Amino acid sequence: MSDLSLADRIDALLPQTQCTKCGYDGCRPYAQAIADGEAPINRCPPGGDAGIQALAGLLRTPPLPLDGTRGEHGPLLLAVIDEEHCIGCTLCIRACPVDAIVGANKRMHTVLDDWCTGCDLCVAPCPVDCIAMVPARREWTQADAEAARARHDDRQARLAAPPRHAAAAAAGIDASYDDTLGSGPIDAGRSDAGTATTGANTDVDTDADAHKRAAIASALERARARRARG
Predict the structure, then answer these.
(1) Which of 47, 51, 119, 174 stands the most exposed, by the fewest C-beta atoms within 10 Å?
(2) 149-162: per-residue pLDDT in tens?
(3) Which domain holds residue 100?
């Protein structure tokens, strides 16, 4: 008998795009909701009919048609940033669930094509509408899903951990130098240091950070509301 829980086995069948179109904050929470009998198996547009069939087989339940209020199944899309219009606000970096966007504050951002899941969560927060979703011209594979799950799990663990410099200060360690970024002393008065970063390097909390997090949460809620309205 497998040591995996039912939620683990359900999660293994989900595409791991972490798009939240199912109404849950990622694939794993949706898998848990299905396992707990709190959600139907037909709320994952990226998985489409094939995903529903796989879940139905696992759970020994009749398949259902895809819930159209959650979106439509279609080819894999890729986020592309219009670099001429990007203002370097970092909102898309913070919205990306798999750290697929690289950039720096007030510097151009770009998408790592091989990491992008096509979730489109970066589109709504962009204040200058410079992100478009375009055909990826390839299929989403099981290897892609496993890699995306790993990056999402790493990101969730990082966000749940205390900020590095706060932890260092609590331990009495001088954190005035950021050895991860390879920069000199951290200048708390500057917001345009320009060091390239993905979502992995956003652990120094400021009032601006709090404002951006609130903006992202609001934008994502608006995006979900638009999806719900169809």
Answers:
(1) 174
(2) 999 999 999 999 88
(3) 77-139
Does residue 21 contact residue 45 with C-beta atoms inside 8 Å? yes
pTM above 0.85, yes or no: no
Taking alpha carbons only, the member of 213, 216, 218 closest to residue 202 is 213
Q: Please, are residues 11 and 18 in contact by the beta-carbon 8 Å criterion?
A: no
Residues 87 and 113 in one domain: yes
CATH of the domain at 16: 1.10.15.40
Taking Cα atoms as reference points, which of 80, 77, 101 lies closest to residue 89? 101
The reply to whether 91 falls in a domain is yes
* Total domains in the fold of the chain: 2
The one-letter amino acid at 226 = R
By the 8 A CB rule, do 178 and 186 touch? yes
Q: Are 138 and 146 in contact (CB under 8 A)?
A: no
Beta bridge partners of 77: 135
